[in-house]
# Entry
Amino acid sequence: MSNPQVSIIIPSFNEGAWLERTVRGCLEKTDYPDFEIIVVGDGCTDGSIEALESRKFPNVKIINLDKSAGAIVTRNKGAEIATGKVLVFIDSHQEPMTENWLKVLVDLLEKPNCGAATVNIASIGEVDRLGFLYTLKNWSLEPTWVRPENATAQMLAPAVPGGCFAIRKQLFVETGGFNNRLKKWGREDFEFSLRLWRMGYDLWFSGDAIMGHAFDHNRAFEISWEQVDFNTLWTAYTLFDSESLELVEAEIKSVRPKVFEKLKMNFNLSEIEKIKENLSMNRSFAEYKEHFIRI
# Structure
């Protein structure tokens, strides 16, 4: 693939000064020769988009949705207008900690059968706090971030985090991108990762580069657990085996029983069966579970 043009897609919702810091970080701390930056404001109202536009940074495209639609819509919108052959998604409260990060991601995509790739995610201000989305913490599909045994190794990963991963644009389009049937926020990166894996694509991690992330950054939006639970159940209904689905249902029901019953009634199981039939799955969830899940 050599050095194909990369489109760095940054969704943002009222991130204040962090948005410009992230864009500056990509422009000033990246040694890759050919990339553009696409900022998709999720209906921002805090002036961060206008402030960024006033800087007139080169190779930076900026749009702002009329109203907030969530991470899935903003990421897919960025992919839609991207001109690069490779898409790289990052959050708007991040900055590169090694200049080689884009090159490492692009090179990982050269591996046979690679669908998507990620690198070390470090907590800004705590350089020794490294990790990546390694496995599931529980059957609510909550992610757990751990430090790899070898922090500089390349290895197969069970998932790529929405906060930093690369994928060929053609493959992103062919596999449907982020699932627009899901709600605004929550578990969308795991659903996309698992869908890729079950379609037969490997997910790769490299510790040769580091992306910084402000883990202690206060979100500008509230998390709706009903939306998260919907996304969790949708993922389980469409991509899990029946045994694991029952574990997911039991977990959510034990924590939020009223929400679970409400969501359960609204799922059209016959429609979900048709969706499952239309997904071209080459690997079973049982195989995924055997390799990656240690709950």
The CA atoms of residues 118 and 188 lie 16 Å apart.
